[in-house]
Amino acid sequence: MHTDTNKFSWFQVPEDIKHLLILAAQSWDNTSVSEQYIQQALVRTEGNTDILVAAYRFFYYKNNYSLALQTTYQLLDKIRESEKFPDKWEELKPILVSRKQESPIRLYLNAYAAAGLVLAKLGEIEQAKEISMRVKEIDDKHDFGAGILLDVLTRPAEEDD
Hints:
The chain is mostly helical. It is built from eight helices and no strands. The protein has helices at about 15-25, 30-45, 50-60, 65-85, 90-100, 105-120, 125-140, 145-155. α7 (about 125-140) packs across α8 (about 145-155).
């Protein structure tokens, strides 16, 4: 079967990787097969950010939150390394605030907020709250959804009548 990989031109990866992603999408109903294609794409691209984002989405929508979180951490580590971010939040926050309109920083904030969401799904509520609060402090335009997650996580339980 011939697959037109040109329609996925935004991915800056070789055609064989695009083909793997298309095969994963085409075999969506067979999770084990589609996951094999995603895993092959991850191995062959050695941490390409577009593929990490695609893999995160795949695992998230397949409700495989452990792999979604693992993939998100790989993406965060890759950006942290390429941008030479400090390890401590107190040092990192001003960098993120001052550069939040730059593409790699936006991707970092999106991935960090996504990690908070996945942690919440995994029941790690305190970690999810911490991440959501951090992103919300930077996200004055509500671009990353951390405020909504924080509201949900901190909403008082509804009382029964």
